[in-house]
Amino acid sequence: MIEAVLFDMDGVLVDSEAFIAEAAIAMFAERYGVVAKREDFLPFVGMGENRFIGGVAEKHGVAIDVEADKARTYELYFEVIRGRLEEIPGAVAFVRACRERGLKVAIATSADRRKLEANLREIGLSDEDFDAVVDGLSVDRKKPEPDIYLEAARRLGAVPERCLVVEDAVSGVRAAKAAGMVCLALAGSFSEAELRAEGADFFAADLEGGLAALEIGLLF
After folding, report:
1. Domain residue spans of the chain
2. Could you confirm whether 140 is annotated as catalytic?
3. How far apart are CA 162 and CA 149, in angstroms?
4. Which pLDDT score is estimated for 214?
5. Based on the number of CB atoms within 10 Å of its own CB, is 141 exposed (0-12), middle (13-18) or buried (19 or more)?
6. How far apart are CA 92 and CA 207, in angstroms?
7. What is the dihedral of CA 155, 158, 162, 165, to 10 degrees?
8. Residues 6 or more apart from 74 whose CB is under 8 A from it?
9. What is the pLDDT of residues 22-53, one digit of tens each?
10. Catalytic residue among 10, 15, 112, 206
11. Is cis: bond before 89, omega within 30 of 0?
12. Is 10 one of the catalytic residues?
């Protein structure tokens, strides 16, 4: 029996990945004169902004100040998302449906807390809608290591094997399975084939599809 649902954030609750890439591209151009492309960031999706920015810097041979450059990327991101950021279809309804069924719910994101709060605010949620919130600064080892999901389960008082993780990234699916959890993968940023190769158990295009599966008992 599933007793808790652990949500990644970017690409799962909010359709943010194009916007953070847009902000990071602008930061690289502004601070380093580097012309980065959105596809440069794809291998680092789900690993937190330090790696998201740092991986692209390595690709382009740029020595960066990670904290300063991340801060500037966030400044640009907060401007970019205002009035534009949308929930992944079905996300808010899925969170509320889980709570109505008596399931514990948590966010486990590699992003920093300030990005998490800004994203939730834009779609009408807050950390009060979750029983636990674990951000990327809460653990030393980021996805694809399992630490963030194990920490979320610990805070919920849930057994890892009874947790369902909702993910959209290869690194996140790998982290969920390493934690011994069941994984619902949303095929958006990555293909179903890529997510299946990492061991994802269920698949949906978005959380509207996930909600339909939840309502007819296909998930648990």
Report:
1. 4-15+86-215, 17-81
2. no
3. 12
4. 67
5. exposed
6. 9
7. -10
8. 23, 49, 112, 114, 115
9. 999 999 999 999 999 999 998 998 788 899 99
10. 10
11. no
12. yes
Say if residue 82 is exposed, middle or buried (CB neighbours under 10 Å; 0-12, 13-18, 19+): exposed
Give residue 53's identity as a one-letter amino acid code.
Answer: I
Place of tokens 């740029």: 62
Integer Rg of the chain from CA: 17
pTM, rounded to two decimals: 0.87
Nearest to 7 by CA among 123, 153, 197, 138: 153
Which of these CATH numbers, 3.40.50.1000, 2.40.128.630, 3.40.1190.20, 3.60.110.10, describes 4-15+86-215?
3.40.50.1000
- 126: buried, middle or exposed (CB in 10 Å: 19+, 13-18, 0-12)? exposed
